[in-house]
Q: What sequence folds into this?
């Protein structure tokens, strides 16, 4: 168990984002935030996901007890300009998956960090191509419970990964937090990473 004081607030209850920050060796605390995620009229997918990441980061900073920089993130699936959010039921999940079947779509993840003075933002775009999916597979996949609460009705790090023929971009961005972009933001806010701790503890 790491007893080091946290250097970052994760404004998200996502276990996937927590896992990625742990992978990076970041000491952080978690504070889930609840914001209005309604899309504004005439708001592009990139503007939409960027705004949500900023608002989550800013909400996290405001609601904490201390003064830790706050990280917010949001992920969307986009096909032909249409945003595929979290499916409400099995029918909607099947519709999403069958639409993506045999086609290429984009996954945008925006990451923002706010320290009460300013907010920095970075965006990752990954292009993902699905193999052809049978209608029966959609039902079986839904019954696993995995598509629920997932943008585009799939989780690439789980069973949904079998649908992916290839991707171009950031795998971790599809999971929910792009490693390269997140690392650069953390450095801007002087949040220590695993390599910094290794350097401090390296033998003389």
A:
């Amino acid at each position: 168990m790491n007893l080091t004081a946290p250097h970052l607030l994760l404004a998200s209850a996502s276990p996937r984002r927590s896992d990625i920050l742990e992978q990076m060796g970041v000491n952080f605390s978690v504070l889930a935030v609840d914001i209005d995620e309604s899309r504004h009229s005439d708001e592009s997918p990139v503007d939409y996901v960027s705004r949500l990441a900023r608002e989550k980061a800013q909400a996290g900073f405001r609601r904490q007890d201390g003064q830790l920089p706050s990280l917010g993130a949001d992920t969307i699936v986009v096909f032909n300009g249409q945003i595929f959010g979290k499916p409400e039921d099995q029918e909607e999940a099947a519709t999403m998956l069958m639409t993506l079947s045999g086609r290429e779509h984009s996954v945008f993840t925006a990451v923002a960090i706010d320290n009460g003075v300013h907010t920095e933002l970075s965006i990752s775009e990954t292009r993902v191509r699905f193999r052809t999916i049978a209608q029966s597979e959609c039902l079986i996949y839904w019954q696993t419970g995995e598509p629920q609460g997932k943008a585009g009705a799939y989780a690439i790090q789980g069973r949904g990964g079998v649908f992916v023929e290839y991707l171009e971009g950031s795998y971790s961005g599809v999971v929910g937090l792009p490693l390269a972009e997140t690392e650069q933001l953390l450095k801007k806010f002087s949040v220590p990473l695993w390599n910094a701790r290794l350097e401090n503890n390296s033998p003389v």
Remarks:
- Helices lie at 15-23, 45-63, 90-100, 135-143, 171-175, 179-188, 194-200.
